[in-house]
Structure formats: C-alpha cells, structure tokens
C-alpha cells in the first residue's frame, strides 16, 4: 500500500486532475517479470467494501492482460495526453469482467463503476476533502507515465504454465466475443 494518493495531471497549467486509487505496475527483478498492484491509502481509508473489491478486481484484470500480452510479446501501450483519452484507453486494455469472474455482483460492481473510467463520487469527495485538501502526501503521475511498458529483456525467458496460458486464451476469446456482442447491440444489429 502506498501511504499517499496518486494524482495524474493533464497539463502543468491545468486544474484538472485524476485520482488513481490503484494501478498495476510490471517490474523486472532478477531477470523475472513481477507484477505489483499499487493500492493507495485513501482507497483503504475511505472506500466502501464494494468499491475496494471493484477496484482490486479491475486491477486484477490489468494483471491478466499484462501476463497475456507478455506471453505474446506485446511490450507497450499507447500513451495519451489527456485524462479523458487515458480513462478510455484504460477500459479497453482489460479483459471483459464477465469473461473472468463468475460472481455476478462483482461483475456488476466493476461494470457499473468502470463504464468510462472509475467514478465513485463519495470516495472522490472524501479523498479530496480529507486527504488532498488536508495536505496529506500525494504523488504526481504524468499521464504518459501511467502506461505499462514490458521490458523485452524481462520477457525473454517468460514461460507460462500450460494451464494458465490456455485459461488466458479462453478468457481473451470470451472477452472478444462479449465485446462483439456489445458492439452489435449498441449499433442495433
């Protein structure tokens, strides 16, 4: 847990910022890929149980996506210069929750709270009032710096267990089918 709040700033002269309650970070240590989920203190201090579960599940989806991408040697994401595009890209870089989780309540929490980026007005208000305005520690994150870059050297020896590789492939295919159905439903086909 990080004893600060991560705040992404769109532009140094702008008052618009985004609060990152958690993020997934790939690291290479001793030649091995490790994935760390960084959770910020205000999430634990002020988040309701359903919100905490939804955020952690969303970050787990990022973890699965990183492992899936690493096994296919895709090594980086596109970057964005503004918060709106960054939020949209975040939602498109994960597997569909229904393709991974069977708990309908959890899937509902994730899809309701992350339709176009995480929004929890209560948590955000408490964080701003009780943390940011109170002058408690915060760390600025450049939007371009909040992307996953998988170092090729750390991927060279990456081998997934056969069962995990197969399971990830099944989840990715199911996720793709779900996105296709959602796109057809949205277009009225």
Automatic annotation (TrEMBL):
This is Uncharacterized protein. The lineage of its organism: Archaea, Nitrososphaerota, Candidatus Cenarchaeales, Candidatus Cenarchaeaceae, Candidatus Cenarchaeum. It comes from Cenarchaeum symbiosum (strain A).
